[in-house]
Design brief:
This protein is mostly helical. It has one domain. About 50% of the residues lie in helices and about 0% in strands. Helix 3 runs antiparallel to helix 9. The longest helix is centred in the last third of the chain and has 23 residues. The protein is globular and about 60 Å long. The protein starts with a helix and ends in an 11-residue tail after the last helix.
Length: about 300
């Protein structure tokens, strides 16, 4: 059975923490603010406050705090496995609280004025690609941690090292198809929400607001894909567009209108999948409970080094 998005996302954080990936904010691969530009003035988003996006299906998924618990459990399981392989595993520096964005923090594009003014369209936390390649660690260490990627001989399984074994152990006995359901439904409602008349209308209002300030984008998701704007470094030009984006979302009430449209779609989805979603909630709770057991030092189903 495929691993759940919940555990896979936590495993991605684990991978970023591995091999000393987060040695410093100045590491190559982490977007850094470019030198201030004299030709571009980054506006202030004074008085702008966008509402937090809360949707009906959220309650069937893991919370931000439980996401952290799962990530910590994966690190603990990986450390045990690596010790069994003869290596002292250090997960590196953890990202600052709140820097790994989960939930709906960017569901409708940028929502945080401070985030926009500081990071533009870049995420606050980005794994260091150079460190992920194993800089400073031996080849044998990297193989122990992340595996060879080759088939193990067991159906549908590949050698993904101790990180993969930790993930499999956390998912053991969990109905990951059930855990996946809320995320699949949320993807569907997100896509369908963009064709709702109210959302199309507010996109047009937002686009007109941006155009009046010198920027041409059809939707609030479009700037993320603008390669002329979003490059390796965060620039003043990018920050200026990002703050203007936030201001236009505020003046057009885009977040409120989009949330209302998608919430209606999610209410209908919950009604249609009520029993399956109850199972999803129960299976997610089992995953979180197992992670807490791992961190408490008991309740581990098997040695993660033996798979």
């Amino acid at each position: 059975m495929p691993s759940s998005p919940l555990a896979k996302t936590a495993a991605a954080v684990l991978a970023a923490l591995s091999l000393g990936a987060l040695t410093s904010c100045a590491d190559q691969g982490t977007p850094r603010p470019a030198a201030p530009s004299a030709s571009v003035t980054v506006p202030r988003a004074t008085g702008v406050h966008l509402p937090e996006v809360k949707l009906p299906l959220d309650s069937y998924q893991v919370s931000a705090s439980d996401f952290g618990t799962i990530s910590s459990a994966l690190i603990s399981l990986t450390r045990t496995c690596m010790k069994g392989a003869g290596y002292d595993y250090a997960a590196g520096h953890s990202p600052a609280p709140g820097s790994v964005q989960t939930g709906n923090s960017r569901r409708y594009g940028l929502l945080d004025p401070r985030d926009a003014r500081t990071h533009g369209y870049h995420p606050p936390f980005v794994p260091d690609a150079a460190a992920l390649s194993g800089r400073g660690e031996s080849h044998a260490y990297r193989i122990a941690l992340t595996g060879t990627g080759k088939p193990t001989g067991k159906k549908g399984q590949f050698d993904d090292g101790c990180a993969g074994k930790a993930n499999a152990l956390l998912d053991q006995g969990i109905d990951t198809d059930a855990v996946n359901l809320p995320q699949w439904l949320k993807r569907d409602t997100f896509q369908r929400s963009m064709s709702r008349p109210a959302v199309r209308a507010v996109f047009a209002d937002w686009s007109a607001c941006m155009r009046a300030k010198g920027y041409s984008y059809a939707s609030p998701l479009a700037p993320f894909d603008d390669r002329r704007l979003v490059g390796a470094q965060v620039t003043d030009a990018e920050r200026a567009v990002a703050v203007t984006d936030i201001q236009c979302k505020d003046s057009t009430h885009l977040v409120q209108k989009w949330t209302a449209a998608e919430a209606a779609l999610q209410d209908a989805a919950i009604h249609a999948h009520r029993a399956d979603l109850a199972e999803a909630r129960a299976e997610t709770a089992k995953t979180v409970a197992r992670a807490k057991d791992v961190l408490a030092g008991h309740g581990t189903p098997a040695d993660p080094a033996a798979r």
